[in-house]
Amino acid sequence: MTSRGTVFQETMLGRARLSDEEHERAVRLDLVVRADAVMLPHRTTQAHVTGRVRIAGRADDADAVGEMEISPLARRRIRYRISFTLEGRRLVLDGWKSVSPARPLASLTVLPYTLYEDGVRVGEGTLRFPVTTGLLPFLGSFRFPRVTDAAADRYLAPRWNGKPGRTEVWYTTLTDPATGSGVWLHHEVVAPTDGSAAYAHGWVAVFPKGGPAEHARFGPVPWTEQPEGYAAEGIHARPGRLAGSAGSFTWSLTETPRGEPVHTFPRWSWRRPWLPASHMLPAARCHYDGTVRYGDNELRLDDAVGASARIYGHGNARRWAWLHADLGGGDVLEIVAAVSMRRGLDKLPPLVFLRLLRNGRTWPRRAERAAVGWAGFGRFRADIGLPEWRVSGRVGRRRIRVTVTQPPERTLALDYTDPDGSPAVCRNSETADAVVGLERWWGRWRQEATWRLSGTAHAEVGDR
Fold first, then answer.
1. Tens digit of pLDDT for each residue in 350-361?
2. Could you tell me the CA-to-CA distances from 421 to 105, 276, 424 in Å, in that order?
């Protein structure tokens, strides 16, 4: 069932007085608000908030997260609860606008709030919506995207229909915010080309920030289809739940989807498998809680950020590169660049599929645009290699340049076997570096945004 959601942006300015100071400091909030329903004034709407919180001289957190309760008529309030980091401390901004018919403008634009740390009050202040400069951008930011009920859960269901020569993958990558460690869970089903029984296998890997990656494989075991996702030999990848054990590894994680599904390849390719493969994310980003134990080590995850993805196709490409980059503030960049194994397509340069989710919008609008351009012109370019690879391209008045670095000491090499028995090798880093530059044409090219990720990008290069 498909419905509409609501996405908008809001900026508020004001002052804060922290309990350890006597003077006030300037505060600025730049928020992106997302709800899974159309926001109507007579209803109570629950929304998820991401964005940036700045307190002059003390805090600048571009990964703030929280919730909003939007109920201007039913409860006569608009409540904000936003969690952010100040000098290594985790604070919560809690406040609400008390809506009053007697003073509608002031009540809808003034937000008194309190700051808490572990439930203890540590500051207070007031924020105001700048009507003169902020109203038009605020109104222009409203979008009502399609929202599919339980979309993330629906995309986890197996796709394989019993035909030989297919492979299907569920994988999850994430970064622990406390230690900087990366985690990679890979679950795969292979249906051999010769018609023999399908089998399930995979691996788990941890990339400590200061040391070499450690991993363990599981399977192969006979595959028995599971209606909700992947389950084999005590390993589970189901809606909201990832668990299992392999070698010295045990893991138990809860997964909370944040954002809409993202089709890295054309949306139709997931429904109709005419291409060599299709790739998509059931949710643009997810939060993870739980534990991963390996050897004598234990990684406790609390609100770790990452994503799960799905692949369905005929096997691995001849050569490929992949990037998942959480850019903060709800923005995400996903790239797959690959040279196909199919005759004819294997002579082409890498086809690039790039999806940039920024401020509630997806660029380019169509996934095909980066890969094929217009009648073959304007394709994005990929220079695949190690330890560094690059992607660049232009659509309309914007162009992007991406440089990914996978240091050898932070990269793990693992081998695959395709349905036809041919081997491939991937070199994966869940603690890669990336620099993303976005430019816009205003009579000349001007920098619109730059992101620098140090050890938090998830990347891979594969070949034969």
1. 999 999 998 878
2. 68, 16, 10
